[in-house]
Amino acid sequence: MAEPLSNGGAYGSVPEPYRLPEHKRPGSSPSSKQSKEAAIPVVDLGGADHGKIVEQILQAGREFGFFQVINHGVADEVMREMMSAAEEFFRLPTEEKMVHYSTDSKKVPRFHTSVGKDEEKLLYWRDCLKLGCYPFEQFKHQWPDKPPSLRAALEAYTTAARAVALRLLRLAAAALGLEEDHFEGKLSGGPVLMNVNHYVPCPDPSVTLGLAPHCDPNLVTLLMANGVTGLQTRHGGGGGGWVDVEPLPGALVVNFGHQMEAISNGRMKSGEHRVVTNARAARTSVAAFVMPEMGCTVTPAPELVSGGEPPLCRPYTYEEFVGVYTSETGDRDAVLAHFQTKH
Question: What is the largest distance, in Å, between two alpha-carbon atoms of the chain?
Answer without folding.
Answer: 60
